[in-house]
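Hi,

Apologies if this is the wrong queue. I'm a grad student, and the batch job for Exodeoxyribonuclease-3 from Ancylobacter polymorphus produced an output file that my downstream script rejects. I'm not sure whether the problem is my script or the file. Here is the sequence I used:
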Amino acid sequence: MKIATFNVNGINGRLPVLLRWLEEARPDVVCLQELKAPDARFPVRAIEQAGYGAIWYGQKSWNGVAILARGREPIETRRGLPGEAEDTQARYIEAAVEGLLIGCLYLPNGNPAPGLRYDYKRRWFARLLAHAAELRALDVPVVLAGDYNVMPTELDVHKPERWVDDALFRPEVREAFHTLTAQGWTDALRARHPGERLYTFWDYLRRAFARDAGLRLDHLLLSPTLAPRLTAAGVDRAVRGWDKASDHAPVWIELDPARPAWRRKPKA
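Support response: The file is valid. Your script probably expects a header line. Output copied below for reference.
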């Protein structure tokens, strides 16, 4: 089973890129971020014609998340992250797909830091930690995938000394990410490539992609019941070089197709 996350940076403007990648990569489940479109403008017909069912949580001009499933309909289980009722930003959606629980997230950027946006980022991260702990306690196969807007270590950023005061790399944000993995979540890409410098984002400016001056912002975290099924992980780096591409590249994992533990019947 192949699961991917992709910050599309505007689903309608980059729909040809998304559809081409879906056809070539054929992921079974996809988490999308930065739709930048209200619910009514989600291109559901084109997605369905590509062979995918979808749920989405849109927002005009900004944010927006979606979950696609090849040949099936995701069953929505949550829309919006709990913990702050007045927060209406479209940053989290969750669904059951083929025995897995998929959480798709777009964590706030937080810049400039310090400031109100950074305060919001830290509150949002705290809410994610609380919800992740609840999911972890369920003891079911869960994937938390998306654009976390954090580089966990110096290995995840080109020239880390230039990012020390940025909201993507400040110590409090990295500490929050490590607190998340300390709950028992496995950083899938790093688990398969422990010492490799891999990036998932390259800015449009200063020839960042050509120079490989990137950041690893997009992560797939696996619950303890799911992590043993991880067989491969990677970044579809070439997609970043396509015409009119997003500034992010798709990140994917492959799981052993063994039947999820939470569906097995107990032995007699």
